[in-house]
Write the C-alpha cells for this entry.
Amino acid sequence: MEHRIEKIKKQLHSQSYKLTPQREATVRVLLENEEDHLSAEDVYLLVKEKAPEIGLATVYRTLELLSELKVVDKINFGDGVSRFDLRKEGATHFHHHLVCIECGSVAEIEEDLLGEVESQVENQWGFEVKDHRLTFHGICKSCQKQTVAATTTTHMEQ
Amino acid sequence: MEHRIEKIKKQLHSQSYKLTPQREATVRVLLENEEDHLSAEDVYLLVKEKAPEIGLATVYRTLELLSELKVVDKINFGDGVSRFDLRKEGATHFHHHLVCIECGSVAEIEEDLLGEVESQVENQWGFEVKDHRLTFHGICKSCQKQTVAATTTTHMEQ
DNA sequence: GGGTTATTTATAATTGTTATAATTAATAGA
DNA sequence: TCTATTAATTATAACAATTATAAATAACCC
C-alpha cells in the first residue's frame, strides 16, 4: 500500500505535481476499493469519511489528474456516470470488464486477450493502436446458477 | 432508404409502437448521416431542419426507443455525450470503433473480430456473453502520414 | 519574511438528460 | 360518426453530473 502511494507520488512529482493530503486521501480510497469501480461521487463520499473538509471539485480534479497520468482509467458503462479504476501495477494496457445485465456486477479481466485482434487492426486497417476499451455485457456465473436453480425448484411444466 | 424505413416501421409495429412523423424524421436523419456518430443534440438540430416543430424530448425518447429495439446502438466515447449509431442491416453484433486521438475521427469495423475472444471468456470465466463494446484508441492512417510528411519536410537534425 | 505559484474550498454555472403537465393525435368501440 | 381511451408530443421545469470561478490557503523559492 505505502509502496504504491510512494510510486504514485513519484509519478506526480515527475510532472511537477504534488501529492497533497487531499490527493493522497483520494488515492488511498481508490487503493482500498480497488475492485469497486467507484464513481466520482462514491470516491467523494469515501474520502469525506477520512477527510471531511475536502470538496467535491477537488475530488473531480484529482481524478482527472490521475487519469491524465494514467494512474487511473476513466470508464463509462453507459449509466451516465464515469467510473475510476486504478491501473494495476505494471499493467500497460487497460483491463477489460464483464458487466452482468442481471445483477449489475462488474468483474475484471487482466489478461490481454486482444493481442491477435490488435495486430489484425494494425495490418488490415492501418490504424496504430495505442489503447483499447473492451466490455462484455452478459450473464455472470452466479446469475446463471440462480436461473438454473429457479427453473429446477419451480418444476416448470411446459 | 425507403426499404430500411419500412423495415424499422415493422419492427416498431411488432412491439405495438407507431412510426409517427417525428420518429420517421429522426430515423431519416440517422439514415442520412449513417457514418457520423451523432449525439442526441446533433440529431435534434438536424431533425429540426426538416421538422422545426419537433421537441428535444421527443428526439431523446425516440432514440431511447430505437435503442431498446436494437435499431440503434447507444455508444459513449467518454466525452460526456451519448452517440447513436444505426445498426447495419442484418448485423447482430455491435460494431467496433477506431477513435483517432490526433484528429478525433471515428471509423467503424463491421467484422466481428471477437469470436475467438468471446468463447475464451465463456469457457475461462463462465460468463455468458450477450453483447460487447470494443473501441480502439490510436492514430489513424491519415494522421500517421501527416506525421511522416512533417518529419520529412522539416529536415529535423538531432 | 515577502512574493509568487499551486492548490483547495465553496459556490455558481453549465451541460446532458429525464420527468411533468397540458395538449394533440390516433384508435377502438358504441 | 361520436365518444372514450390511450399513445405521443410539446414546452418547460427539474435533475444530476461535471466544470468554471473567485476568494482563501498552503507551499515554495529567492
Notes: DSSP finds six helices and six strands in chain B. Residues 17-18, 20, 22-23, 53-58, 61, 80 of chain B lie near DNA strand D (CB under 10 Å from a C1').
